Amino acid sequence: MTGELDILGVFISPLLAWGLIALALHGVLRAGLDRVGFNRAVWHAPLADLALLVIMFGIVTRLGTEWMGS
Hints:
mainly alpha; two-stranded antiparallel sheet; 2 strands; 9% strand; elongated
């Protein structure tokens, strides 16, 4: 196992793939939080967005490493 993902003959770093997955999940979660008015409950909305993205990236990375068996 080389550690890269082979997508149609192009080797992709798992970190990049997990980052894109985390970004997509962040967008979905952010839309749901906007719908319920989450921005009114936080002091600094961009900082909360960044924290949410970091948390999502950590979760996706953890699950991805367990799935790949590394």
